[in-house]
Amino acid sequence: MTNHWSRERAEPVAVGPPRRRMTRADRIREARGRRKRRVAGGFAVAMLIVVVVVAVFLGSKLWHSLFGSNDYSGDGVNDVVIQVHDGDSTTAIGKTLQDHKVVATASAFVDAAEGNAAISEIQPGFYKVRTEIPAANAVARLADPQNRVGKLTIPEGRQLDDVRDVKTNAVTDGILSLISKATCVDLDGERNCVSADALKEVASTATPEALKVPQWASQPVLAMGDDHRRLEGLIAAGTWNIDPSAQAQDILSTLISASATQYAQGGLLDTAAAMNMSPYEILTVGSLVQRESTPEDFAKVARVIYNRLAENRTLEFDSTVNYPLDRIEVATTDADRAQNNPWNTYVRPGLPATPICSPSQPALAAAEQPAPGDWLYFVTVDMQGTTLFTRDYEQHLANIEVARRNGVLDSAR
């Protein structure tokens, strides 16, 4: 039987041009093409990887250059002194630390200081820290009072030079010595100070303008020539912050300028105008009041000064005799009182050439508002500081005798 199915089955029909048989040369060329395409693709991938790596690197560099790394590690590199200004926020302190390369970023310091009451209560001033330390370390250093430097306290009644007590030989630091000690700071194991001699040299030679001497004091300062005592009284009593790394002239000019502001805010200039006196004269009267009496008698002593000046009497204050001799003594000798110098009010009419110390605010207030009275004389008559005032000279002599009997006027020489 004939198989009609096999005879009638359709055969597949070729589509497109007939296929050409590949030669060996064709196969070689095709293989080469495949290899070139693989190499090109691999190269493109490699280039993409390089581009990504470079972009990441450059982005990282840009980020660090703009914002710095988040924090340092280790014990730091060098000691450095930074300043905290009045009113500085924690962020402002952090910025100062970042600028001095103490911390890597201000934000790291802010984060480390969060919740630390000592930082929120930090006082304006200068502090010793180290460069490149962790932010937490910077917080701890600023919170430690031992790291505060440049704090200067000038007690009321101090003069520029050291003074010696005649009876005890005890030496009291003058303002120049106090400034010098306040500048001392140990940096990387080396102690650095601005010496009292360097300060005295600048006080003698720098111009009043360079020292920021207020206009109301410039003429008396110039009149004293190159005597360093020309700056007496122009650095006010009180507590100050001074930069330990500053030069002697900058330190003095900063203190004098700030003191002039303090005096002006206390009303010195306005009161002087009302009293028809110069601010310098009132400052000088205040210094005499400070040295000659105790606070309860300040206003009375101020009145004695004005009464004697009004009657063209010499003041005859032993404090003005002792001042240029750099000593403390209640009694003075005839030879001392005979010395002719710009301060001795036994031989010099009127006020001394300069203040004889830095007076307190109460002493200045007494100079500005003296007590009413007609007294011309006063003397301290006992060791408790009791002072007797009178206008009558004979009564004054009697009061002096009381003081002698009580041992107040005994000389140690």
UniProtKB/TrEMBL annotation:
Give the Gene Ontology MF terms in alphabetical order: lytic endotransglycosylase activity
Going by the entry's taxonomy, the superkingdom of the source organism is recorded as Bacteria
Q: Where in the cell is it found?
A: Cell membrane
- Site feature location: Important for catalytic activity: E292
* One Pfam family this sequence matches: YceG
Q: Where is this region: Disordered?
A: 1-31
Q: Which reaction does it catalyse?
A: a peptidoglycan chain = a peptidoglycan chain with N-acetyl-1,6-anhydromuramyl-[peptide] at the reducing end + a peptidoglycan chain with N-acetylglucosamine at the non-reducing end
Q: Which UniProt keywords apply?
A: Cell membrane, Cell wall biogenesis/degradation, Lyase, Membrane, Transmembrane, Transmembrane helix
Tell me how this protein sits in the membrane: Single-pass membrane protein
- UniProt lists compositionally biased (Basic and acidic residues) regions at 1-11
Give GO cellular component annotations, separated by semicolons: plasma membrane
Spell out the InterPro entries in the cross-references: MLTG-like
- Top EC class for this record: lyase
Enzyme Commission no: 4.2.2.29
Transmembrane intervals: 39-63
Q: Does the keyword Protein biosynthesis apply?
A: no
Q: Does the keyword Transferase apply?
A: no
Q: Output the GO biological process annotations, alphabetical, semicolon-separated.
A: cell wall organization; peptidoglycan biosynthetic process
Which family, according to the similarity comment? Belongs to the transglycosylase MltG family.
Function noted in UniProt: Functions as a peptidoglycan terminase that cleaves nascent peptidoglycan strands endolytically to terminate their elongation.
Name of the molecule in the record: Endolytic murein transglycosylase
As recorded in Swiss-Prot or TrEMBL, the protein's gene is named: mltG
